[in-house]
Amino acid sequence: MIKIAFINAILEGGGIEKLLGDIVNRLDKNIFDITVFTTRQGINPNKIFKDHIKYDYLYKNITEIGGIKKYTNKLFNQKFKIFNSNNEFIKKINKGRFDIAVSMKEGLISVLVSKTNAKIKIAWVLTDVNSGDSMNNYIKKSYNELVNAYSLMKKIIICTNTAKHSFEEVFGILTEYIVIPNLVPETEVIFRSNEKVSNIAKPKDKLLFICVGRLSHEKGQELLIRSCKLLNDMDYKNKYELWLVGNGKDRNMLEQYVERYMLSNIKFIGYQDNPYKYMKLADVLVLPSKTEGFGLVITEAMFLGIPIIATNSAGPSEILDNGRYGILTDIDSKAIAEGMKTFLDDNSKLNKYKNLSIERSKKYSEENILSKINAVLIGENSEKALYNENTRNLG
């Protein structure tokens, strides 16, 4: 068996945790002995991982660190460095004597993984390191530490070519960089999309736009709401509806925007365990992110044959091939509104972009991406993998 550890910050039910779950749940349990570690416990791991996935953490919650009652994530990272000076987390991981240790988050987690005794260390980079003020500030403060950490990685997996180029610009060539798009479990997406929606009905004789994601500044929902204000002012109000699926720290602010602008055709759906059944009802997906390392929801929507409007950041630009497979707009309310008008003014374009989504989804098939992940993870452990495969066949 290949003993492999995946290390992340916390289980919050966000995009990284979903990707992590999709990966580990699909790796062959007859080849990989998998453990997931987090610095903090979050939601119930049984909601993310299958039964054979082992899970461990350092702190049950933030209050265990030094007896201090409350932290923001930023303060947690600062205090984690101080209170973890005796390498408790690294010692916990090292007890497993892993063949491979994989960092699932840039920054501190990658530094921690670089210090483990795993035979092979791998970093997964899921963002564009040249975009986002918080990432840039962290890199400036910890540049030498990050260079040392990434230099100790056998391989670094990066989600897009654009993000790879950014990483090379910032850090240079430190080791082998491999581009693997984020895994999307297409069979699960399609299957779950067939569930019935009971809490809201699709509007009749109107286009339904949908935006799915965490309600936060970087995801750009306020830009989309301002786009709807522009459209409504141009007498499009009775021609469409927008559903916002997701929750987050900006929800109250966004609801205030909608109330202030009297945008009654915008509906807040909230967080949903199964967003796909809502997506299937939609005519068009809109992703208004200010920065997006990949854009998982785009590929999910493509598997459902949904036309795409997305702002021009690293991930969406690459997935849509610079606008060939969907409408790519500037990161601006007016530009997003113009993208939405494309379909409001000419409904016949829905079929064109639906077919383009289906065509493009083939590149991101579960089988294709999983084979690339297996090739990297098995790599120099091929003898172990072959032994387990032969043993299973003999059994």
Could you characterize the architecture of this molecule?
The protein folds into two domains: 2-179 and 365-394, Glycogen Phosphorylase B (Rossmann fold); 187-364, 3-Layer(aba) Sandwich (Rossmann fold), CATH 3.40.50. The protein has a seven-stranded parallel β-sheet, with helices on both faces. With 395 residues, the protein is an alpha/beta fold. The chain is built from 16 helices and 13 strands. The longest helix has 19 residues, at 133-151.
CATH level 1 name of the largest domain: Alpha Beta
Number of domains: 2
CATH architecture of the largest domain: 3-Layer(aba) Sandwich
Trace the largest sheet across and list its strands. 3-2-1-4-5-6-7
Biggest sheet character: 7 strands, parallel
Please tell me the overall pLDDT: 88
In CATH terms, the superfamily of the largest domain is Glycogen Phosphorylase B
Discrete helix count: 16
SSE-based structural type: alpha/beta
Overall body shape: globular
